[in-house]
Amino acid sequence: DAKTTQPPSMDCAEGRAANLPCNHSTISGNEYVYWYRQIHSQGPQYIIHGLKNNETNEMASLIITEDRKSSTLILPHATLRDTAVYYCIVRPYTGGFKTIFGAGTRLFVKA
Amino acid sequence: NAGVTQTPKFQVLKTGQSMTLQCAQDMNHNSMYWYRQDPGMGLRLIYYSASEGTTDKGEVPNGYNVSRLNKREFSLRLESAAPSQTSVYFCASSGLAGKSGELFFGEGSRLTVL
């Protein structure tokens, strides 16, 4: 599985958009980009995923560059409850059992 | 639905003791996983089971054994616990048709080895 690179930490003001970048320059054609978040020491929670088109759901938007070598997770109106560690991973839609989680980005949302 | 259930949630062991962490999922998923997370670190894959009846090593399998008891259950056993195995252990599952890539995690089992 391809590896990803994320900044270790980011700050965001409450109510503003949080833009979390991820580099995945070695992504394969059959690999999707997935985002998860982990609040405190709870189990990671799925946020969103995409292949090559931009995706949006009730939690966030995912922007994937045309060459698919990087992506950005957007939390449109960050709240204090969005303070968490965000993980960007790549894996095939089927198989890809050895998914590698890096250290993620620790997002601090400040009042 | 309960999703992924792990037991116990907390456990303290002495060095050399053995124990089994239990994991069950009620989502009819084919694949199950065990991860460990040390303080301030990401998740590292210990073992996974792609489907019922199969298990394979992940990144850090030494000191652990697993059993895929049936489609629902995947257990992790520490035969002789060591302080280096102090960690939070997460079980996950995936493989529902149409959402194969999405991982669903349990709430974690916090293990301390003295």
What is the averaged pLDDT score of chain A? Answer: 92
Oligomer: heterodimer
| Main sheet overview of chain B | 7 strands, mixed
Shape of chain B: globular
Structure description:
The complex is a heterodimer of chains A (111) and B (114). Chain A is mainly beta and 111 residues long. Chain A has strands at residues 9-13, 18-23, 31-38, 45-50, 55-56, 61-64, 70-75, 84-92, 105-110. In chain A, 0% of the residues lie in helices and 47% in strands. In chain A, the strands form two sheets. In chain A, strands 1-9-8-3-4 form a five-stranded mixed β-sheet, with no helix packed on it. A four-stranded antiparallel β-sheet of chain A has the order 2-7-6-5, with no helix packed on it. The mean pLDDT of chain A is 92. Chain B has strands spanning 4-7, 10-13, 19-25, 31-37, 43-49, 56-57, 64-68, 74-78, 87-94, 104-105, 109-113.
List the helices and strands and how they pair.
The complex is a heterodimer of chains A (111) and B (114).
Chain A: E1 9-13, E2 18-23, E3 31-38, E4 45-50, E5 55-56, E6 61-64, E7 70-75, E8 84-92, E9 105-110
Chain B: E1 4-7, E2 10-13, E3 19-25, E4 31-37, E5 43-49, E6 56-57, E7 64-68, E8 74-78, E9 87-94, E10 104-105, E11 109-113
Parallel strand pairs in B: 2-11
Antiparallel strand pairs in B: 1-3, 3-8, 4-5, 4-9, 5-6, 7-8, 9-10, 9-11
